[in-house]
Amino acid sequence: MLEFDTVPAERRPAEERAALLADPGFGRVFTDHMVTIRYAEGKGWYDARLEPFGPLSLSPATAALHYSQELFEGLKAYALPDGEVGLFRPQANARRLNTTAERLAMPQLPEELFLRAVWTLVEADREWVPTGEGQSLYLRPFMIATDPFLGVRPSSEYLFVVIASPSGSYFAGGAKPVTVWVSQDYSRAAPGGTGAVKAAANYAVSLRAQAQAQEAGCDQTVFLDAVEHRWIEESGSMNLFFVYERDGAPLLVTPPLNGSILPGVTRDSVLTLARHRGWGVEERPYSLEEWRSDAISGALRETFACGTGVVITSIGTARSRDGEFLIGGAAEGPVTSSIRDAIVGIQRGLAEDPFGWSLRRA
């Protein structure tokens, strides 16, 4: 078993840490340590370290800088009522990381090594796990190709890193409904591409559309399919759900995993929870026309987005160059709030966990 060497970091004073944790924002503040593990073809994974958070030393010819052979994951650690720390479904992130690695011709990272790397960092920086309402320790595992070679081929060397960031709400306004921009000019992914995996390049191609959304006064972008520019796929960082009522119970509709939509861990959690409650679930194509007409008629009760960063976020307004429409009066609905409360309750150890999603250190 690969053991982790430790290079202790100089820890920031308690007063400084407390000031940063009071209002960490999202992804702006980082803990004292990081984990690094190297890989070489023919050697495998080696040189696992817990070391001070700091710059990486890379050749200007590093393959990831030229050909985007890089991936990442995102998960969270939560302060539990008994003083312990819990992770939410980290095994799912380990599996998805390897799905992405296979698609990008990168090496598989053993699931147990992924989990040990994450726990090593969480335990070293336990004092950085925030306890405020809506706060968590966001964990960012990533892998980059480090071969200093400009030929177009898979790298022979890689670096896996885990960093941690105490974080609050993803959106500045907190839990209030957000406004989204439906992009009709740009596509996020296409059939046969990398839309179903956590490739860093997927997010680069979404940034211009996100800038367009911000110019239109919106919080996030919703992308349509790349072929017909008709079908709702996902947001730049979120999966989407549309809430109806059928036979007196909620019916959740979400676009299917068609090869260009990311199989979100929170998405899967929502589907599992809905089925557990006996609600209706449909994974089917969902068009922009259906979204608009059902929102206007009132047949559509709610729309929400989900993801590791945003958890569950209500969408109140959808805007495009053809105009805008409101969903449920632009107010958060009861299904959205109920799902968020249930998932957050499990994440924070405040509710029963019938699915075994919250993992504690053995």
Automatic annotation (TrEMBL):
**E.C. designation(s):** 2.6.1.42
Instruction: Provide the family line.
Output: Belongs to the class-IV pyridoxal-phosphate-dependent aminotransferase family.
Species this chain originates from? Dactylosporangium salmoneum
Q: Which residues form a coiled coil?
A: none
PANTHER family given for it?
BRANCHED-CHAIN-AMINO-ACID AMINOTRANSFERASE (PTHR11825:SF44), SUBGROUP IIII AMINOTRANSFERASE (PTHR11825)
**Which keywords describe this protein according to UniProt?**
Amino-acid biosynthesis, Aminotransferase, Branched-chain amino acid biosynthesis, Pyridoxal phosphate, Transferase
Q: Does the keyword 4Fe-4S apply?
A: no
Gene Ontology molecular function: transaminase activity
Q: Which reaction does it catalyse?
A: L-isoleucine + 2-oxoglutarate = (S)-3-methyl-2-oxopentanoate + L-glutamate; L-leucine + 2-oxoglutarate = 4-methyl-2-oxopentanoate + L-glutamate; L-valine + 2-oxoglutarate = 3-methyl-2-oxobutanoate + L-glutamate
Q: Which cofactor does it need?
A: pyridoxal 5'-phosphate
Name recorded for this polypeptide:
Branched-chain-amino-acid aminotransferase
UniProt xrefs under InterPro entries? Aminotrans_IV, Aminotrans_IV_CS, Aminotransferase-like, B_amino_transII, BCAT-like_C, BCAT-like_N, BCAT_family
- Name the enzyme group at the top EC level: transferase
* Pathway(s) per entry: Amino-acid biosynthesis; L-isoleucine biosynthesis; L-isoleucine from 2-oxobutanoate: step 4/4; Amino-acid biosynthesis; L-valine biosynthesis; L-valine from pyruvate: step 4/4; Amino-acid biosynthesis; L-leucine biosynthesis; L-leucine from 3-methyl-2-oxobutanoate: step 4/4
